[in-house]
Amino acid sequence: MAGQLVEIWQANASGRYIHKRDQHPAPLDPNFTGVGRCITGPDGSYKFTTIKPGAYPWKNHVNAWRPAHIHFSMFGTEFTQRIVTQMYFPGDQLFPLDPIYQSIVDQDARDRLVANYDHNLTEPEWALGYNWDIVLTGSKRTWTENEALGAAGDEE
Ligand SMILES: [Fe+2]
Q: Which of 52, 61, 66, 62 is nearest to 22 (CA)?
């Protein structure tokens, strides 16, 4: 969708959010706010340059760690269409242990939350590139937290 506001928030490389509620004793990064926004282009594409967030503990159960993820929000064409979801990185060892990821029963829907490494997007001496399509409608639509209210618990 063109002209779409996309917002992201995430932990830093140590798995720490800048939010005051995050008292995890990992270091804050004074150069990293963990938030970003952009508007999609005419073809619906978007791009962020960021750091890969670390896993972080969240006390949902003993020794609970969230897989590395980036939170996304899109507003659609009207306020009631706002969707919130999470993007994951391929091959994360924490997927089988994560109640949020596991709360999605359809494996295809889970897979659609995982970005694909794309060497064509990777920039020499700068950053790895990942592709992640967000689908707003239809049978292949991206899982959203709107669908899972009550299942996810209290998570940043
Ligand atoms: Fe999070």
A: 66
